[in-house]
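Reopening this one. Same input as before:
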Amino acid sequence: MDIESYIQSMLVSNLLRESTLRAMIKALQLPAGSCGLDAGCGIGLQCLLLADEVGLTGHVTGLDVSSEMLDRGQEIAKEAGLSERISFQEGDVANLPFDNNVFDWVWSADCVGYGPWEPLPLLKEMARVVKPGGIVAIAAWSSEKLLPGYPRLEARLGATSSGIAPFIQGKKPELHFLRARGWFRELGLRKPRAKVFADSVCAPLNDEIRNALVALFDMRWPNVAPELSSDDLAEFQHLCLQNSPDFILNLPDYYALFTYTMFWGKA
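Same output, byte for byte:
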Protein backbone atom coordinates (compact mmCIF):
# COMPACT_ATOMS: atom_id res chain seq x y z
CA MET A 1 0.00 0.00 0.00
CA ASP A 2 1.49 3.36 -1.03
CA ILE A 3 1.60 6.20 1.48
CA GLU A 4 -1.34 8.11 0.00
CA SER A 5 -3.53 5.01 0.12
CA TYR A 6 -2.37 4.32 3.67
CA ILE A 7 -3.16 7.88 4.75
CA GLN A 8 -6.62 7.58 3.23
CA SER A 9 -7.19 4.28 5.06
CA MET A 10 -6.12 5.92 8.33
CA LEU A 11 -8.58 8.76 7.79
CA VAL A 12 -11.48 6.48 6.90
CA SER A 13 -10.87 3.92 9.66
CA ASN A 14 -10.25 6.58 12.33
CA LEU A 15 -13.98 6.64 13.03
CA LEU A 16 -13.58 3.23 14.71
CA ARG A 17 -10.69 4.36 16.92
CA GLU A 18 -11.48 7.91 17.89
CA SER A 19 -13.74 7.32 20.90
CA THR A 20 -11.36 4.69 22.28
CA LEU A 21 -8.33 6.95 21.86
CA ARG A 22 -10.22 9.83 23.46
CA ALA A 23 -11.06 7.61 26.45
CA MET A 24 -7.39 6.66 26.85
CA ILE A 25 -6.25 10.26 26.72
CA LYS A 26 -8.96 11.22 29.23
CA ALA A 27 -7.66 8.50 31.60
CA LEU A 28 -4.21 10.14 31.66
CA GLN A 29 -5.66 13.27 33.31
CA LEU A 30 -3.32 15.60 31.43
CA PRO A 31 -3.14 18.97 33.19
CA ALA A 32 -4.98 21.85 31.56
CA GLY A 33 -2.50 24.23 29.94
CA SER A 34 0.23 21.60 29.74
CA CYS A 35 2.58 21.07 26.82
CA GLY A 36 3.23 17.62 25.41
CA LEU A 37 4.67 15.56 22.58
CA ASP A 38 2.93 13.07 20.31
CA ALA A 39 5.86 10.84 19.32
CA GLY A 40 5.25 9.16 15.97
CA CYS A 41 2.14 11.25 15.36
CA GLY A 42 1.46 10.12 11.78
CA ILE A 43 -1.11 12.48 10.27
CA GLY A 44 -1.80 14.06 13.65
CA LEU A 45 -5.23 12.66 14.44
CA GLN A 46 -4.33 12.09 18.08
CA CYS A 47 -2.79 15.56 18.24
CA LEU A 48 -6.32 16.93 17.83
CA LEU A 49 -7.58 14.86 20.76
CA LEU A 50 -4.58 15.77 22.93
CA ALA A 51 -5.01 19.48 22.15
CA ASP A 52 -8.68 19.25 23.09
CA GLU A 53 -7.73 17.64 26.40
CA VAL A 54 -5.12 20.24 27.48
CA GLY A 55 -7.34 23.16 26.55
CA LEU A 56 -6.88 26.60 25.05
CA THR A 57 -3.62 27.37 26.86
CA GLY A 58 -1.99 23.99 26.21
CA HIS A 59 0.20 22.98 23.29
CA VAL A 60 0.90 19.74 21.43
CA THR A 61 3.96 19.01 19.31
CA GLY A 62 3.55 16.22 16.77
CA LEU A 63 6.70 14.46 15.60
CA ASP A 64 7.09 11.94 12.77
CA VAL A 65 9.78 10.78 10.33
CA SER A 66 7.44 11.13 7.34
CA SER A 67 7.19 14.58 5.78
CA GLU A 68 4.11 13.42 3.83
CA MET A 69 2.37 12.48 7.09
CA LEU A 70 3.30 15.80 8.68
CA ASP A 71 2.09 17.80 5.69
CA ARG A 72 -1.30 16.11 6.00
CA GLY A 73 -1.24 16.66 9.76
CA GLN A 74 -0.74 20.40 9.27
CA GLU A 75 -3.70 20.48 6.88
CA ILE A 76 -5.89 18.59 9.36
CA ALA A 77 -4.90 20.85 12.27
CA LYS A 78 -5.60 23.95 10.16
CA GLU A 79 -9.02 22.64 9.10
CA ALA A 80 -9.82 22.02 12.78
CA GLY A 81 -8.76 25.56 13.71
CA LEU A 82 -5.95 24.26 15.90
CA SER A 83 -2.83 25.50 14.09
CA GLU A 84 -2.00 27.80 17.01
CA ARG A 85 -2.14 24.95 19.52
CA ILE A 86 -0.51 22.18 17.48
CA SER A 87 2.88 22.30 15.80
CA PHE A 88 4.66 19.61 13.82
CA GLN A 89 8.31 18.69 13.54
CA GLU A 90 10.08 16.09 11.45
CA GLY A 91 12.27 13.75 13.48
CA ASP A 92 12.99 10.25 14.70
CA VAL A 93 11.57 8.93 17.97
CA ALA A 94 14.88 7.07 18.45
CA ASN A 95 16.70 10.41 18.57
CA LEU A 96 14.24 13.08 19.64
CA PRO A 97 15.38 16.60 18.62
CA PHE A 98 14.57 18.10 22.01
CA ASP A 99 16.49 18.91 25.19
CA ASN A 100 15.98 17.01 28.43
CA ASN A 101 12.95 17.81 30.60
CA VAL A 102 11.05 19.85 27.99
CA PHE A 103 7.53 18.44 28.02
CA ASP A 104 4.91 17.90 30.70
CA TRP A 105 3.96 14.58 29.09
CA VAL A 106 4.76 12.40 26.09
CA TRP A 107 2.29 10.15 24.24
CA SER A 108 2.80 7.61 21.48
CA ALA A 109 0.06 5.57 19.81
CA ASP A 110 0.71 2.65 17.44
CA CYS A 111 4.38 3.54 17.31
CA VAL A 112 6.67 2.93 20.29
CA GLY A 113 6.67 -0.78 21.03
CA TYR A 114 4.36 -1.47 18.11
CA GLY A 115 6.84 -1.70 15.23
CA PRO A 116 9.91 -3.80 14.41
CA TRP A 117 12.23 -1.46 16.32
CA GLU A 118 13.74 -2.13 19.73
CA PRO A 119 11.26 -0.51 22.15
CA LEU A 120 13.46 0.37 25.13
CA PRO A 121 15.64 2.99 23.38
CA LEU A 122 12.52 4.70 22.06
CA LEU A 123 10.79 4.68 25.44
CA LYS A 124 14.01 5.93 27.05
CA GLU A 125 14.03 8.88 24.65
CA MET A 126 10.44 9.66 25.56
CA ALA A 127 11.32 9.59 29.26
CA ARG A 128 14.36 11.82 28.65
CA VAL A 129 12.37 14.73 27.25
CA VAL A 130 9.70 14.66 29.99
CA LYS A 131 9.98 16.80 33.09
CA PRO A 132 10.35 14.95 36.42
CA GLY A 133 6.90 13.75 37.44
CA GLY A 134 5.61 14.01 33.87
CA ILE A 135 3.55 11.32 32.20
CA VAL A 136 4.95 8.85 29.66
CA ALA A 137 2.27 6.86 27.82
CA ILE A 138 2.27 4.39 24.95
CA ALA A 139 -0.81 2.82 23.39
CA ALA A 140 -1.45 0.32 20.63
CA TRP A 141 -4.19 -1.63 18.89
CA SER A 142 -4.11 -4.95 20.73
CA SER A 143 -6.91 -7.21 19.43
CA GLU A 144 -9.95 -7.49 17.24
CA LYS A 145 -12.85 -9.82 16.52
CA LEU A 146 -14.10 -8.83 13.10
CA LEU A 147 -15.49 -12.10 11.72
CA PRO A 148 -18.31 -13.21 14.04
CA GLY A 149 -19.02 -16.91 13.62
CA TYR A 150 -15.71 -17.65 11.88
CA PRO A 151 -13.13 -17.95 14.67
CA ARG A 152 -11.02 -20.48 12.79
CA LEU A 153 -10.62 -18.25 9.72
CA GLU A 154 -9.91 -15.22 11.89
CA ALA A 155 -7.27 -17.21 13.78
CA ARG A 156 -5.69 -18.24 10.47
CA LEU A 157 -5.64 -14.64 9.30
CA GLY A 158 -4.18 -13.53 12.62
CA ALA A 159 -1.30 -15.97 12.15
CA THR A 160 -0.26 -14.57 8.75
CA SER A 161 2.60 -12.10 8.41
CA SER A 162 0.07 -9.31 7.83
CA GLY A 163 -2.16 -10.51 10.66
CA ILE A 164 0.57 -10.37 13.30
CA ALA A 165 2.03 -7.15 11.90
CA PRO A 166 3.62 -4.93 13.01
CA PHE A 167 5.13 -7.72 15.09
CA ILE A 168 7.50 -10.08 13.34
CA GLN A 169 8.17 -13.80 13.60
CA GLY A 170 11.09 -14.55 15.86
CA LYS A 171 10.72 -11.41 17.97
CA LYS A 172 11.69 -12.02 21.59
CA PRO A 173 8.64 -12.40 23.85
CA GLU A 174 9.86 -9.69 26.21
CA LEU A 175 9.83 -7.21 23.30
CA HIS A 176 6.15 -7.79 22.55
CA PHE A 177 3.98 -4.75 23.25
CA LEU A 178 1.94 -6.47 25.94
CA ARG A 179 5.15 -6.84 27.98
CA ALA A 180 5.60 -3.05 28.09
CA ARG A 181 5.00 -2.77 31.83
CA GLY A 182 8.38 -4.43 32.26
CA TRP A 183 9.99 -1.82 30.03
CA PHE A 184 8.65 0.94 32.26
CA ARG A 185 10.09 -0.75 35.34
CA GLU A 186 13.46 -1.34 33.65
CA LEU A 187 13.74 2.35 32.80
CA GLY A 188 12.81 3.43 36.32
CA LEU A 189 9.48 4.99 35.39
CA ARG A 190 7.28 5.19 38.46
CA LYS A 191 3.89 3.58 39.04
CA PRO A 192 3.61 1.80 35.69
CA ARG A 193 0.00 1.02 34.83
CA ALA A 194 -1.78 -0.92 32.11
CA LYS A 195 -5.38 -0.84 30.97
CA VAL A 196 -7.46 -2.19 28.09
CA PHE A 197 -9.93 0.08 26.32
CA ALA A 198 -12.57 -1.58 24.14
CA ASP A 199 -15.18 -0.53 21.64
CA SER A 200 -17.58 -2.30 19.31
CA VAL A 201 -19.87 -1.82 16.32
CA CYS A 202 -23.03 -3.61 15.31
CA ALA A 203 -25.52 -3.62 12.46
CA PRO A 204 -27.21 -1.77 10.98
CA LEU A 205 -24.00 -0.11 9.76
CA ASN A 206 -24.18 3.38 8.33
CA ASP A 207 -22.01 4.17 5.31
CA GLU A 208 -19.22 5.76 7.37
CA ILE A 209 -18.88 2.80 9.73
CA ARG A 210 -19.09 0.33 6.86
CA ASN A 211 -16.35 2.15 4.93
CA ALA A 212 -14.24 2.30 8.09
CA LEU A 213 -14.53 -1.46 8.54
CA VAL A 214 -13.67 -2.08 4.88
CA ALA A 215 -10.54 0.05 5.33
CA LEU A 216 -9.70 -1.84 8.52
CA PHE A 217 -10.01 -5.21 6.75
CA ASP A 218 -7.64 -3.93 4.06
CA MET A 219 -5.15 -2.69 6.66
CA ARG A 220 -5.22 -5.81 8.84
CA TRP A 221 -5.13 -8.49 6.13
CA PRO A 222 -3.39 -7.28 2.98
CA ASN A 223 -1.58 -9.77 0.74
CA VAL A 224 -2.60 -12.82 2.78
CA ALA A 225 -3.31 -15.12 -0.16
CA PRO A 226 0.15 -16.81 -0.34
CA GLU A 227 -0.07 -17.82 3.34
CA LEU A 228 -3.57 -19.33 3.30
CA SER A 229 -4.64 -22.80 2.24
CA SER A 230 -6.92 -22.96 -0.79
CA ASP A 231 -9.92 -23.61 1.48
CA ASP A 232 -9.08 -20.71 3.80
CA LEU A 233 -8.44 -18.39 0.86
CA ALA A 234 -11.79 -19.27 -0.67
CA GLU A 235 -13.55 -18.58 2.64
CA PHE A 236 -11.63 -15.31 3.04
CA GLN A 237 -12.65 -14.16 -0.44
CA HIS A 238 -16.21 -15.29 0.23
CA LEU A 239 -16.50 -13.34 3.52
CA CYS A 240 -14.01 -10.49 3.49
CA LEU A 241 -14.10 -8.92 0.04
CA GLN A 242 -16.71 -6.22 -0.31
CA ASN A 243 -17.68 -7.22 -3.86
CA SER A 244 -18.71 -10.68 -2.62
CA PRO A 245 -22.50 -11.18 -2.33
CA ASP A 246 -21.81 -12.86 1.05
CA PHE A 247 -19.57 -10.10 2.41
CA ILE A 248 -19.74 -10.45 6.18
CA LEU A 249 -20.64 -6.79 6.71
CA ASN A 250 -23.93 -7.55 4.99
CA LEU A 251 -25.06 -9.69 7.94
CA PRO A 252 -28.17 -8.13 9.50
CA ASP A 253 -26.77 -8.94 12.95
CA TYR A 254 -23.11 -8.14 12.28
CA TYR A 255 -21.09 -7.36 15.41
CA ALA A 256 -17.37 -6.64 15.90
CA LEU A 257 -15.15 -5.55 18.75
CA PHE A 258 -11.60 -4.28 19.07
CA THR A 259 -9.28 -3.19 21.84
CA TYR A 260 -6.43 -0.81 22.52
CA THR A 261 -4.04 -1.28 25.40
CA MET A 262 -2.28 1.63 27.12
CA PHE A 263 0.74 1.59 29.41
CA TRP A 264 1.74 4.67 31.31
CA GLY A 265 3.89 5.83 34.17
CA LYS A 266 5.72 8.87 35.55
CA ALA A 267 9.25 10.06 34.92
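So the earlier flakiness isn't reproducible anymore. For the record, Residues 3-266 form a domain with the Rossmann fold fold (CATH 3.40.50.150).
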